[in-house]
Amino acid sequence: MNKRMSAGYALVIFFVGLFSVVCLYPFLLVISGSFTTRAAATTYGFTLIPREFTVEPYRVLFSNSKAIVDGYRVTVLVTITGTVLSLVINSMMAFVLSRQNLVGKKFINIYVLITMLFSGGMVPWYIVCTRYLHLKDTYLALVVPMLVSAWNIFLIRNYFKAMPNELYESAKIDGARDFLIYRRIYMPLAKPVLATVLLFTALGYWNDWWLGLMLIDKQEMQPLQMLLRAIIANIQFLQTMDSSPMMQQMMANIPGDGVRMALVIITTGPIILLYPFVQRYFVKGIMLGSVKG
Predict the structure, then answer these.
(1) C-beta separation of 42 from 258 below 8 A
(2) Where are the domains of the chain?
(3) What is the CATH number of domain 63-288?
(4) What is the pLDDT of residue 243?
(5) Under a CB-based contact definition with an 8 Å cutoff, are residues 195 and 43 in contact?
(6) pLDDT at residue 293 above 70?
């Protein structure tokens, strides 16, 4: 029996290791491609070890280092602020919806569900954001539109509903109010699902460029993703425009694919550091937050 278990365990380790290599290979190829010259990439393709090493893609991206630093500053600020506020707002809404004695609970649940299935459209959304909420060219424009998520509310609500109701009742007998119960009892016990929601929300804010495109005109307030998107678009434009032979030869030396791969490294590198801190909670938070409706 022990030998069978050992063989099965070794087989599982082998397949997990193989799957990890398969998942890691594209990322390593992107790292190598970001350091490969355009000529080598055209001749040999992208390999794990660059045939001809270059840092030109990073030099192109950091040609305006101040803009990159400003983009990082805006994105980090928006990601931290938006993630914290979104986690608090969604968890408070989820706590309210998890209470059995909530008046109008069914109506509120349906109302939240409708927002997840339908939207008013881009034009009404833009009018509300600019004319009524006055979010044009402000940092709040990059935070407020993504604060509330119906999916996250239901995920946290289901986790709260799975907790023993005796916790709530005993705290009420001791004289605790709802906000104190939410903050001192439910939130500490909900770390798995909160970590999962934190990861989803942080990734959403970090990768967002749509809000910067629609609501931000000032260059110094552009998030990192929007700024780097503009850099890639400018390079593509210069490479395809008709110009003198000298200009065409100069633009042909710009490593377009290498710049794209360097862009992937620059934008995904910092957010990857978040995974080790929340990975152990991820599966548990998804499972416990979704098994009970």
Answers:
(1) no
(2) 2-33, 63-288
(3) 1.10.3720.10
(4) 53
(5) no
(6) no
